[in-house]
Amino acid sequence: MTQTLYAHSKQKKSANESRLLHSSVKVLKLLEFIGTRTTPVSLAEIIKQIGGNRGTVYQQLKTLTQTGWVIQNSEQKYLLALKIVNFAKNALEQLDIFLRITPLLEQLAQVTGEAPAIAILDGKDVLIIKRVESKQLVRADIQVGTRMPIVDSASGLILVAHSSSEKQQELRDCGIKIPSKDKLNQIRIKGYATQIDLWQKGLSAVAVPLFIGFDREILSLSMACPTERFDEKRTIAHLNLTVTQFKNSL
């Protein structure tokens, strides 16, 4: 009898734990869905895409909002809070990415006299998450946290070129006029992207892809400087050497 009660209690506990895990998975899937969108989404859009009871999904959104993971704009639509950016930076640090790449960036800045940076694709923008300043008096005014347009930045072009076709189409659907598939393929084949006087007049940059992790997450490694000092061939060579050194450090 005691064994039967124990087995029943254990079974009941296991069922409760399963329900708790299932509810957590739903919230995480909701957060993931919002995170894959490039524009804010309404409650109706969320239910249409991922299903669920309206009241339940609303409570899940309320939970994510109150805990700072999601914000609601003036149009009552939901989008990721910037809190997620800090976690992305911490994830890279936990993977020793920053630990490994920072000395290489410092070395790159010292050798070239320019400021290298690491960026990611964040929604409809490019976000700078790491940068080492140069000692030049005249230099690019770009800081960690700076957002750049995808099309007019070298980092944006290299990141989109290495993104999935689904991501590229999603950006097009949002009205971002990214290059054609043929041009993006050319960027992938070349292995770098360049912009001259597009994002800011008098500023030029080169970016190359930097792959990390087993699933080959894509970052961009770039270097920007005043156009009058810009040496494309030399910059590409130094960036590629840094990528090679980074790969050898893993």
Q: Structural class of the secondary structure composition?
A: alpha+beta
Number of discrete helical segments: 9
Average pLDDT metric: 83
> What's the CATH topology name of the largest domain?
Beta-Lactamase
Order of helices and strands, N to C?
HHHEEHHEEEHHHEEEH
CATH superfamily of the largest domain: GAF domain
Percentage beta strand: 15-25%
* Helicity range: 40-55%
Question: Low-confidence segments, ≥5 residues, pLDDT <50?
Answer: 1-10, 12-18
Using the CA coordinates, give the radius of gyration: 22 Å
The separation of the N and C termini measures 58 Å
Q: Assign an overall shape.
A: elongated
- Work out the count of structural domains: 2
- What would you say the CATH architecture of the largest domain is? 2-Layer Sandwich
Care to count the β-strands? 8
Protein described:
With about 250 residues, the chain is an alpha+beta fold. It folds into two domains: about 1-80, Arc Repressor Mutant, subunit A; about 85-250, GAF domain (Beta-Lactamase, 2-Layer Sandwich), CATH 3.30.450. Helices cover about 50% and strands about 20% of the residues. The strands form two sheets. The protein has a six-stranded antiparallel β-sheet with strand order 5-4-3-8-7-6, with helices on both faces. Strands 1-2 form a two-stranded antiparallel ribbon. β1 and β2 (about 80) form a beta hairpin. α1 packs across α3 (about 55-65), α5 runs antiparallel to α9 (about 230-250) and α6 (about 155-160) packs across α8. The longest helix has about 35 residues, at about 1-35. It is elongated. About 30% of the residues are buried. Mean pLDDT is about 85; it is low at about 1-10 and about 10-20.
